[in-house]
Amino acid sequence: GIQVEQSPPDLILQEGANSTLRCNFSDSVNNLQWFHQNPWGQLINLFYIPSGTKQNGRLSATTVATERYSLLYISSSQTTDSGVYFCAVESTGGFKTIFGAGTRLFVKA
Amino acid sequence: AAGVIQSPRHLIKEKRETATLKCYPIPRHDTVYWYQQGPGQDPQFLISFYEKMQSDKGSIPDRFSAQQFSDYHSELNMSSLELGDSALYFCASSRTRGRGYTFGSGTRLTVV
């Protein structure tokens, strides 16, 4: 099946810093999503981005489907950005979305 | 805006008991997905339904079964519970396959 790799696995930032999270996937995908799981366990959909670039406030994402990777940019990080960021992809021909192992982010005040 | 509703939020069961988790998708969403997330792990796909028919299956144990009803709500039935079944169970829904998912708040199952 399709493999999803995220990097880095862990990240510690000072409040106000910028960061880039990466997601590599091993096969063609129907869609790609970025999720944030907050410390209370809630999964929030950040972006649905099978290709191209999207921005939402301090967050933006870019997916280059032909090269099988996606990037999530966090600018001016805040302590509330802490949590785990998951990349999830749906391979072609299926109805399931596979998650990467996540990037665990901690933003220090 | 309406979200995905899961019930119960928390559930404690003893080994070998049975549990039923419920999921009410966002209105007009035609696809429902179930995921299991163990402590410190990423969500693992269990099963999905499209228009009330099972559409895909992941690493769902034979002790588990699920269905989607005529009103589009879905139930995950778990029998002969084991300690290792303790996890956060998420339901997600989407409108038309391949669109963005909305997750519910999850059901935290503890098997003792």
Overall description:
Chain A has 109 residues and is mainly beta. In chain A, 0% of the residues lie in helices and 61% in strands. In chain A, the strands form two sheets. In chain A, strands 2, 4, 5, 9, 10 and 11 form a six-stranded mixed β-sheet that branches. In chain A, strands 1-3-8-7-6 form a five-stranded antiparallel β-sheet, with no helix packed on it. Chain A is globular. Chain B has 112 residues and is mainly β. In chain B, a hairpin with a 7-residue loop joins strand 9 and strand 10. At the A-B interface, strand 4, strand 5, strand 9 and strand 10 of A face strand 5, strand 9 and strand 10 of B.
Major sheet size, sense and barrel closure of chain A? 6 strands, mixed
Q: Most extensive chain contact?
A: A-B, 23 and 24 residues
Largest sheet of chain B: 7 strands, mixed
Strand content of chain A: over 45%
Indicate the structural class of chain B: mainly beta
Q: How many individual helices of chain A?
A: 0
What's the helix-strand series of chain B? EEEEEEEEEEE
Give the C-alpha Rg of chain A.
13 Å
Distance between the termini of chain A: 40 Å
Question: How many DSSP helices of chain B?
Answer: 0
Low-pLDDT residue spans of chain A? none
- Low-pLDDT stretches of chain B are none
What is the straight-line distance between the termini of chain B?
Answer: 36 Å
Mean pLDDT of chain A: 94
Q: Compute the gyration radius of chain B: what is it?
A: 13 Å
Helical coverage of chain A, percent range:
under 10%
Q: What structural class do you assign from the helix and strand content of chain A?
A: mainly beta
| Helical coverage of chain B, percent range | under 10%
Q: Which helices and strands occur, and which strands form pairs?
A:
The complex is a heterodimer of chains A (109) and B (112).
Chain A: E1 4-7, E2 10-14, E3 19-25, E4 29-37, E5 43-48, E6 52-56, E7 59-64, E8 69-74, E9 83-91, E10 97-99, E11 103-108
Parallel strand pairs in A: 2-11
Antiparallel strand pairs in A: 1-3, 3-8, 4-5, 4-9, 6-7, 7-8, 9-10, 9-11
Chain B: E1 5-7, E2 10-13, E3 19-24, E4 31-37, E5 44-50, E6 53-57, E7 64-68, E8 74-78, E9 87-94, E10 102-103, E11 107-111
Parallel strand pairs in B: 2-11
Antiparallel strand pairs in B: 1-3, 3-8, 4-5, 4-9, 5-6, 7-8, 9-10, 9-11
